[in-house]
Amino acid sequence: MVLVDLAASKAMGSAAVLLFLTVLMLAAAKRMSTSIVAFALQSAVLAAQVLAVAHIHRSTESYVIGGLVILIKVLGIPYALFRLVDKLQAPRDVKLSLSPVYSVFITAGLIFLSFTAVHTYVQELRVSEDVLAAAVALILSGAFLMVSHGKALMQIIALLVLENGIFLAALITTFGMPMIIEIGVFFDLIMGVLLMGVFAFRIRDTFEHLDVSKLRRLRG
Amino acid sequence: MQLTRLFFDLHLAIPVAIPLILLPGWRSSRYRRVVPVLLFVSMFLGAATTLLSWRTGQLPIVDLSHLLPFPFVLTLDRLSSLFVFLICAVTAATTVFSVAYIERHYGTGQQAWIWTFLPLFVLSMVLVVTAASAFAFLFGWELMTVFSAALVAADGDSPERRHNLLIYLLMMHAGAAAVAASFFLFLPYTHGLTFTQIRAAGGTLPGRTAIAIYLLAFLGFSTKAGVIPLHLWLPRTHPIAPSPVSALMSGVMLKTAVYGLVRFGFDFLPHPAAWWGYLVLLAGVVSSVLGILYALAERDLKRLLAYSSVENIGIIYLGLGAALIFQAYQAPMWASLALVAALAHTVNHALFKSVLFMGAGSVSTTTHTLNLDELGGLFARMPYTGATLLVACCSIAGLPLFNGFVSEWLTFRSFLAGATLPSPVAQIILPLAAGVLALVGGLAAACFMGLFGTAFLGRPRGVAAKSAGEVPFGMCLGTGVLALACVAVGVYPALLLGPLSLVAASLIPSGNVAQELSLLPRVLPILTTCVVGILLLAMAIPRATRVTAIWACGLPTLSPRMQYTPTVFSKPLRSVFAAVYRPNRKIEVLPADQPYFPVAVSYRSERTTSFEQSLYRPAVDAIVAAANQVRRLHTGNVQMYLLYIFLTLVSLLALVKVLR
To answer: Is residue B502 classed exposed, middle or buried when 0-12, 13-18 and 19+ CB atoms within 10 A define those classes?
Structure first.
């Protein structure tokens, strides 16, 4: 039992650093599979965080949510994404709009910005500063990934990262949301991935590629 | 009181009921014949209401607030009574005219259309001038725009007409927005927007709010009044409306703007600054001078009249401006005099401009043209219409013994009184404005002499004018009554000035103008007697007459082409004011290779200056250019759009950080 307590407190303490690492990894990733793995890792860190909270607060609901996170975000969605990559038979590279070096620097800048942004709120909310900063950094870098990547698939991942950030922020500021809301959020997420997967197929079928920058032909 | 209230209710209810009568019998002419009668009765009741309430001093109040989410109150104070009476009188005469006019010009569907909207249009104007709450006022104001546009649309359809109508609606809505904004600016200082509450708040407003209210009201009402440079819609809309409708639009609808300006300037905001007056004065100077100059260069009868409306609104603005200046310098007597002058010109313009527009309608009824180049010699062919138009032309030119003289003389009188003010600026500017008014009067005389001379005197310039005949009795009656009113006011001004001095006294309590106003009513009847006596004497004395052929420059006979054309008539004035017109002249000689033996010579002179080109076009271009710049942001690239969102998010975060 002591071992589990120790693991929980370690997970709470080091989650932020691990999340930053996954964010930087996503920014630097050149291949689709790397991105998916990075996202799965990120979700795993998140799940560990949820489980740690569940253990510390002794709440059954949080255990269930943690289980759902592992089931859906760590295993389900990455598996679906891998299958999507296979099915679409798209080139494996992610098509960055700017070089991975700049991308990593900008992400680092975003992490810095998120630390400065949350600084003032930490006192009011009584949460650990680095986890809240990690949540904001996930949101920002999710948005940044959308901008910097041209592939429709990569934008699905970016949206998922963004969602992870929102999930984390909700988790640490409310110390666990009601079950029903969490389930609703997961349902939304699954529907979103489903829809975007369908759209990725449609885009591929219509335009013979997955590059959203070519969608400008749709402009009126 | 009961009677007054009953009359007022009926007056308001009948125009609403008319469309309900027309709907079942849309195609039946029997139903349609009832409409003019009902409209006439309604107008009669309206006039009776104003007279009754004027005599007894009791105000009929219609309060529909409990039926509506906003306070909706109508009442008749002195100022409202004046305008309601004006609307009723002009509309009654116009109705008499319209029966024959509309019958002759329009098919069944169009007739029903016009007779449906005409009463509603009149009702909306009555709403505007009787409103005692902001909501009622704005409601009437918008209806007025919509119904007048519906009436203009009755006259047919073409891309150009749609364009003109669109400009009309656009400018009217912009003006209405300004008026609405000026009302709503009162809100922080009152609990509601009935006029009583607004009046109570008006004296205690902070300076900047009062200025903002006044400027917005000025802009909004000036758009309706067609003051240059907000006149763009006026020469486009009035000529394309049916003649009785143009008579109402020009004669009465423009005056609702004057009503609004007086309401705001003298009733709601009791402490005007002097520069408010100078602003109105400047607008008046620009509109009156440019309006009459543009009118002078027109050859289309109704466009000429439309520009002349701009000029007359300018004269009214001159009076209003002077009144505001006197008010600001605490000279209530002169302020009332100037206000009486402005209101008198408002009434007079409504009378003679309606006659002129209806006269234009009569001319187009028999000749099917409004181009002065094709008219001529109509006086012999349509003597009654000619006589009424002559009276109206004399009135609008401001000749003594006609009503235009009375109001212009009063305006002059108040301007010259400006020399008594303590401020040197006013001492210089007001008498100078008298000079402007003199110039405008002269130009107006030339313009309308040209109009009457080319259209009614001389010989017909075209087949249409040659075969013209007198219009039906109803049409002559409609114009004739108003022309008689012009003469009556001109000969016996006390008819008009008595009530007007009471109106002015209700707005400027300390201004006693009886002394100043007593001069004209004493002089003019005597003058009239003398003039009529001399004329009779001259006619009584027998003179020797000789019948002989007219010398035709050695040519066998006189031909209509030897006459002055309207273009030639206005040529000297147009060369003097060439800087205003910047004409683009073109002389074409055919055939081009034989300049000494021409078969045909044509001359064209076009005004190249217009506010559309010099003011509105650059503004529109700038907006389009700005829109094109913004369009470059719309790359069509999804990532770009995401980047915008992202940058907004990041910069907001940074901003929060900086501000904290």
So the answer is: middle
